[in-house]
Design a protein that fits this description.
Pfam families: RCC1, WD40_RLD. This is RCC1-like domain-containing protein. Keywords: Repeat. InterPro entries: RCC1-like_dom, RCC1/BLIP-II, Reg_chr_condens, Ub_ligase/GEF_domain. There is one protein chain. A hairpin with a 3-residue loop joins strand 25 and strand 26. The protein has a domain of 135 residues: Methylamine Dehydrogenase, Chain H (7 Propeller). The N and C termini lie far apart (50 Å). The longest helix is centred in the C-terminal third of the chain and has 7 residues. Strands 1-2-3-4 form a four-stranded antiparallel sheet. The protein has three helices and 28 strands. It has 447 residues and is mostly beta strands.
């Protein structure tokens, strides 16, 4: 018999290369973070990576009830306080703080204070918040209309998505540059970047306003999720629908064909949980069995190999376990079972798996320190320490790209991932995952 007061993981979140866990204790909740910390996304007041979970000092005693990750930033919702905290990479206003500075200590968002939050989602550079009243707010980068405001102007503070007034928004999800939501009526709306059909309206155009997905008439959607450039919906009966980019078979249809309207997934039934990664997708059925499909270069599908998974495969490393929480980052995955065990797998170059090392894992590996029965709250709180917060403007941290290429004898003074033309996925796939060790690190450009 388990003790109901025993510390356990009640929330998970994954960013591009960092992870968060929310721990329930008899005296309140504790937020832990680990992985890449260059942009302050771990919330410890510095820019250092962490290979093991560390408690976020400033959130102890704040009553945090939900945690979320964007690509290089993080959010926490304190339900009792009716407050949202954000921290990490701040360019384009994705933190909602009113400016574009990086934030290294969780910062409350005055614009959202006093609002009861129902659902939050973080994309690459934008954020959505649905309130208990059914209103939707958006902030951050908006170059593809992903904020749903009818324009392409970035938003540094939360703005009401007026196009959905009259609808009661219950669930939200963000891809890299597109957004989606479900309403109390079970309708699905999408907007933002639409090149590969991820809007679900049958077209390949960006949408600057929420647009109703086609092919779901009469279906009451209960869950929504996004991968980098694909969309996922699950109805009240557990049927799963996917659409958008499919170059890595991430839509779970057994092929690499883009879908421009929602298409039902036949290989996985009675779905209870879904998670969209950068180019892969995971789903858990009502029995807690996990299935994975898509890009698997770093083992993020958890099937024991690094070959892409075209036809959905069950994650055998979790056989006998019932998964009740499931989250995916760009290249790594976290899961919690009904017995309270936490597993992680996939990419680990920044320690985002939490296993005190940087070795990738092709199969689920238990993170014992965060598994029920082993969580040492006293040790976590003692190791937590306040660090003086500081902010850095993006202009001071970015590697500036010159207007012209240097001459043959010039020595570059910075390094970035090469820019890739939008839509050139072959070129995108060729971009190295990490910068060369021989070149000083710099803030990376996104494709």
């Amino acid at each position: 018999m388990t003790d109901d007061n025993e510390p356990r993981v009640i929330g998970l979140a994954c960013g591009s290369s960092h992870s968060l866990a929310l721990i329930s204790t008899p005296t309140g909740s504790i937020v832990l973070s680990w992985g890449r910390g260059e942009d302050g996304q771990l919330g410890h007041g510095d820019a250092e990576d962490r290979q093991e979970p560390q408690a976020v000092f400033s959130l102890i005693g704040r009553g945090v009830s939900v945690v979320h990750c964007g690509a290089e930033y993080s959010l926490a919702v304190a339900e009792a306080e009716k407050q949202i905290y954000s921290w990490g990479w701040g360019d384009f206003g994705r933190l909602g703080t009113g400016d574009v500075k990086d934030v290294f200590i969780p910062c409350p968002l005055p614009a959202m204070t006093g609002r009861q939050v129902a659902s939050v989602a973080c994309g690459d550079t934008h954020t959505l918040v649905a309130t208990a009243a059914g209103e939707l707010f958006a902030f951050g980068r908006n170059q593809n209309g992903q904020c749903g405001l009818g324009s392409i102007q970035d938003c540094v503070v939360p703005q009401l998505v007026t196009a959905l007034q009259g609808k009661h928004v219950t669930r939200v999800a963000c891809g890299a540059e597109h957004s989606m939501c479900a309403t109390a009526e079970g309708e699905v709306y999408c907007w933002g970047w639409g090149r590969y059909g991820n809007i679900g309206d049958g077209e390949s155009q960006d949408r600057h306003l929420p647009t109703k997905a086609k092919g779901l008439s009469g279906i009451k959607v209960a869950q929504v999720a996004c991968g980098w450039r694909h969309s996922i919906a699950v109805d009240a009966e557990g049927a799963m629908y996917t659409w958008g980019w499919a170059a890595y078979a991430q839509l779970m249809h057994g092929d690499r064909t883009d879908q421009y309207v929602p298409k039902r997934v036949e290989a996985v039934r009675h779905v209870a949980l879904v998670a969209g990664g950068w180019r892969h997708t995971l789903a858990a059925d009502r029995e807690g069995r996990v299935y994975a499909c898509g890009w698997n270069k770093f083992g993020q599908c958890g099937v024991g190999s690094t070959e892409d998974v075209v036809t959905p495969q069950q994650v055998q490393g979790l056989d006998g376990e019932r998964v009740v929480q499931l989250k995916s980052g760009w290249k790594h995955t976290l899961a919690v079972t009904d017995s309270g065990k936490l597993y992680s797998w996939g990419r680990n170059v920044n320690g985002q798996l939490g296993h005190s090392g940087m070795q990738d894992s092709r199969e689920p590996k238990e993170l014992t320190a965060l598994s029920r029965g082993n969580i040492n709250i006293e040790a976590f709180t003692q190791r937590a320490r306040p660090v003086v917060a500081y902010g850095v403007a993006p202009s001071d941290r970015y590697a500036v790209v010159p207007d012209s290429e240097p001459g043959a004898d010039a020595v570059p003074q910075f390094s970035t991932v090469p820019e890739v033309p939008v839509g050139d996925e072959a070129a995108a796939a060729a971009v190295p995952d990490t910068l060369p060790d021989t070149v000083p690190d710099a803030k990376r450009l996104r494709v």
